[in-house]
Amino acid sequence: MAAEFLKLYPKNPDLRRIEQVVKALRNGAVVIYPTDTVYGMGCDIHNARAVERVARIKGIKPAKNDFSFICYDLSHIADYARVSNQAFKVMKRLLPGPFTFLLEATNNVPKLLNTNKKTVGIRVPDHDIPRQIVHQLENPIITTSIRDEDEVIEYSTDPELIYEKFRNQVDIVIDGGYGGNVASTIIDATDDEFSIIRQGLGEFIL
Fold first, then answer.
1. Residue partners of 29: CB distance under 8 A and separation at least 6
2. d(C-alpha 100, C-alpha 69), whole Å
3. In this structure, which of 24, 25, 113, 114 has its CB flanked by the most CB atoms within 10 Å?
4. What's the mean pLDDT in 170-194?
5. Residues 189-206, buried b or exposed e (16+ Cβ, 10 A)?
6. Is 206 domain-assigned?
7. Transmembrane segments in this chain: where (predicted)?
8. How far is Cα 27 from Cα 18, in angstroms, rounded to an integer?
9. CATH number of the domain to which 123 belongs
10. What is the pLDDT of residue 149?
11. Residue 105 belongs to what domain range?
12. Cβ contact 31:171 at 8 Å
């Protein structure tokens, strides 16, 4: 059965359609959605089968995944990551925004993702669609970027082309308009040195 292609507007997205996506996620759906950087794919972090599906689609072993979590804000971050006071201040200043903060994972994360990972990436994108989804879901979703096989363009930007590629692998593709083709800046915040692992869209200034 082909995925549903769902149009949502980035500003003030239709909450009834957001509820539809949330209901699907609770039932184990894999969803593709826009962010403030590139299009992402993800699922409810509490659904192990859905996490395995995302890993399969990406062609990686679930135990070796490099998924990040999309959160609505920083209010529940202590459930998933250990954050120093300094890191919290920096994140509060820069988020929502195009950054992924790599933090020491709490014991919850290996249980959720069936992995031995000691770190977790935390994202609070400056985009209403994914934030409203996790706000109504009441817990984060895992996220991984939609890459393109094109030698020039690293990330897929056209939601219709994304739909054509993934329509038989996922359950919902959200059309939130053209996406960007520069991923988030990844910052190692496991200590207060704040080293940049990948320079992306966000400009990190302490």
1. 21, 43, 50, 170, 171, 172
2. 9
3. 25
4. 95
5. bbeeeeeeeeebbbebee
6. no
7. none
8. 14
9. 3.90.870.10
10. 65
11. 4-198
12. yes
